[in-house]
């Protein structure tokens, strides 16, 4: 994977062969069977058991990609690589990119391919040194160009596209809080929105912090209503075509979140053909 990033930077003619060799230790992906719906081929048979998954999580800012990708990462014992976390870590580091990133993030703009690939390269190289295999990518690819690069060098098994109505997304983002001491994420928003046009009602209870974190909660600088709405607009304009890219390959699984974690997690496991208890017992053996 790190070789993939070097290929993007160098654009050398023989990089693809080098990248393919670097991925030779990863289990080959199985073909995802799909059923054709009108204009929307959707995977209907997913078999993650007994293989190293190579998955991508898509979705608007604030939809919960990190939450569900992280849970699946733990369950399947593969690394969860979130480019948003890489950006935030760089912002905290006071490194050479931190000032440039701060200006971009505070304006609600997308971070450039060059910067994202630079940060991702460092993370992948660190993972390779630790012997990591497989991955769940969260926040990459964000553009069709990035998706094309990824397709050139490895087989993505499945692309999970998490979906929520825009009104819910805005409320969720405005309710996000971080403990400045322990770094854990919480959400103070209490969401209860009636369904429209036949859609079901969506209710999400707040994810409140423990007492020791209450006085230390902070809001991300980019979680203002104007910036959140700008991020959503950019997503529709720039990133949504990535959905079409993977849909055309029969790898896109669109999943409408029915509510918060208690309602959504078991349903997501069901559509992914995963048994949480089975995996926990296997890991403990």
Automatic annotation (TrEMBL):
| EC number assigned by the record | 2.7.4.3
Q: Which UniProt keywords apply?
A: Kinase, Nucleotide-binding, Transferase
The coiled-coil segments of this chain are none
Supply the PROSITE patterns for this chain: ADENYLATE_KINASE
Listed Pfam families: ADK (PF00406)
Q: Name one GO molecular function term.
A: AMP kinase activity
Q: State the superkingdom.
A: Eukaryota
PANTHER family, A to Z: NUCLEOTIDE KINASE
Descriptive protein name: adenylate kinase
Q: How does it assemble?
A: Monomer.
UniProt family annotation: Belongs to the adenylate kinase family.
Q: According to its UniProt record, which reaction does this protein catalyse?
A: AMP + ATP = 2 ADP
Q: Which InterPro entries match?
A: Adenyl_kin_sub, Adenylat/UMP-CMP_kin, Adenylat_kinase_CS, P-loop_NTPase
């Amino acid at each position: 994977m790190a070789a993939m990033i070097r290929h993007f930077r160098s654009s050398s003619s023989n990089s693809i062969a080098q990248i393919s060799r670097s991925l030779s230790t990863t289990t080959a992906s199985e073909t995802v069977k799909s059923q054709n719906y009108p204009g929307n081929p959707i995977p209907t048979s997913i078999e993650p058991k007994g293989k190293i998954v190579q998955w991508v999580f898509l979705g608007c800012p604030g939809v919960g990609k990190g939450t569900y990708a992280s849970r699946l990462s733990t369950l399947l014992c593969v690394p969860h690589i979130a480019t948003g976390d890489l950006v935030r870590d760089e912002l905290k580091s006071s490194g050479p990119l931190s000032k440039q990133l701060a200006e971009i993030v505070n304006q609600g703009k997308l971070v450039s391919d060059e910067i994202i690939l630079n940060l991702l390269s460092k993370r992948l190289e660190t993972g390779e040194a630790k012997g990591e295999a497989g991955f769940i990518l969260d926040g990459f690819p964000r553009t069709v160009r990035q998706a094309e690069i990824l397709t050139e060098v490895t087989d993505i098994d499945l692309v999970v596209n998490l979906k929520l109505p825009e009104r819910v997304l805005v409320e969720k983002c405005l309710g996000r809080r971080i403990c400045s001491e322990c770094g854990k994420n919480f959400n103070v928003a209490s969401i209860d929105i009636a369904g429209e046009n036949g859609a079901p009602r969506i209710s999400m209870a707040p994810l409140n912090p423990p007492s020791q974190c209450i006085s230390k909660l902070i809001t991300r600088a980019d979680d203002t209503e104007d910036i959140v709405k700008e991020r959503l607009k950019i997503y529709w304009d720039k990133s949504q075509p990535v959905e079409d890219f993977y849909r055309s390959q029969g790898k896109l699984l669109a999943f409408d979140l029915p509510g918060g974690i208690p309602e959504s997690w078991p349903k997501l496991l069901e559509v992914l053909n995963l048994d949480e208890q089975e995996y926990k017992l296997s890991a403990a053996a």
